[in-house]
Amino acid sequence: MGPEALAHVLRPFAAKSHPNLIVGLETADDAAVYRLNHNQAVVQTLDFFPPIVDDPYEFGAITAANALSDVYAMGGRPLFALNIAAWPDDLPLELLSEIFRGGQEKVEEAGAVVAGGHTVSDEGPKYGLCVTGVVHPERVLTKGGAQPGDLLVLTKALGTGVITTALKAGRAAPDHVEGAVRSMLALNRWPSTIAREAGVRAVTDVTGFGLAGHAYEMALAASVRFRIRAGTLPALPGALEYIRGGFLPGGLERNREYFSSGEEPRVSWEPGVPEQLVTLALDPQTSGGLLMAVPERLLPEVVARSAQHDQHVWVIGSVEEGSGVLLTAS
């Protein structure tokens, strides 16, 4: 569902809350956080979607990594997950077993367990997980909290949306698909740990609304503007090629319409920014990286800890007074 439709559906419920609900609908964050006591809170999220790659095992593992990412984005530790699956009666059940196997092994890689689930018959296959984790109530990472002067750090390259769209069209090179799959399979476990241990407070994961859309959510939550240098955006191999070839997912156009339309767009860009980089910033990601607003004094520690874990990080911009997201040419 696109951002405009989702906002419309959720609008009547956003004001409802509870004293122990630390993070709920009103903040549009990555997962819900519910306080159990002074030292523990539950983090819970749910995510599912149709296949985006051909291999059922890889699809299951990617979907699990994507769902786990929301817990990591809140600074949580996953405990267990429940499978959610819709399956056509005319597809072999062996394929569903492979999807479940991929999901289970990725959840186990995260140090959690798959504890059950629910399946229904449907016209098209879909798979996802409800993930439950824990976090200290005073150490929750949220989209809010960015301050002017902070630097914007991204932990995965962009372009999974356009690459998987090219795959569906039969036009993606195998090595480009392999690179995108490898990126989507990577857990955000270490980036979350690094952010938490370094003292970073403002974090989100980059998924369906694209980098620019999720950056806007962070900027809105903190009443600041995110200035992103378009030329620093890391692209997965092949991503810009497929953008130039017109392999654009439907979600990308919905992102563009919602975030960049109107007299005061939520996301804007300078005239000198190449169109392909604007498109890359709006490309909906699956199991994307974390976007962090890092105080400048903490950046050396974030970079050093990332190097220790062979974790790539890119400094792509900064936080300043104002509102919205601005893509700049330099």
Kindly identify the CATH topology of the largest domain: Phosphoribosyl-aminoimidazole Synthetase, Chain A, domain 2
Residue windows where pLDDT falls under 50 for at least 5 positions? none
The total of beta strands comes to: 13
How far apart the termini lie comes to 33 Å
Layout of helices and strands:
Elements: H1 3-10, E1 21-23, E2 32-35, E3 41-49, H2 56-73, E4 77-87, H3 93-109, E5 113-121, E6 126-135, E7 151-154, H4 160-168, H5 174-185, H6 189-198, E8 202-205, H7 210-222, E9 225-229, H8 239-244, H9 250-260, E10 267-269, H10 275-282, E11 290-294, H11 299-308, E12 314-320, E13 324-328
At a glance:
The protein has helices at about 5-10, 55-75, 95-110, 160-170, 175-185, 190-200, 210-220, 240-245, 250-260, 275-280, 300-310; strands at about 20-25, 30-35, 40-50, 75-85, 115-120, 125-135, 150-155, 200-205, 225-230, 265-270, 290-295, 315-320, 325-330. It is of the alpha+beta class.
Structure, explained:
By secondary structure, the protein is an alpha+beta fold. The protein has two domains: 3-135, PurM-like, N-terminal domain (60s Ribosomal Protein L30, Chain: A, 2-Layer Sandwich), CATH 3.30.1330.10; 151-328, PurM-like C-terminal domain (Phosphoribosyl-aminoimidazole Synthetase, Chain A, domain 2), CATH 3.90.650.10. The protein has eleven helices and 13 strands. The protein has helices at residues 3-10, 56-73, 93-109, 160-168, 174-185, 189-198, 210-222, 239-244, 250-260, 275-282, 299-308, and strands spanning 21-23, 32-35, 41-49, 77-87, 113-121, 126-135, 151-154, 202-205, 225-229, 267-269, 290-294, 314-320, 324-328. Strands 8-11-7-12-9-13-10 form a seven-stranded mixed sheet, with helices on both faces. A six-stranded mixed sheet has the order 1-2-3-6-4-5, with helices on one face. Helix 2 packs parallel to helix 3 (93-109), helix 4 crosses helix 5 and helix 6 (189-198) packs antiparallel against helix 11. The chain starts with a helix and ends with a strand. The model has no long low-confidence stretch (mean pLDDT 95).
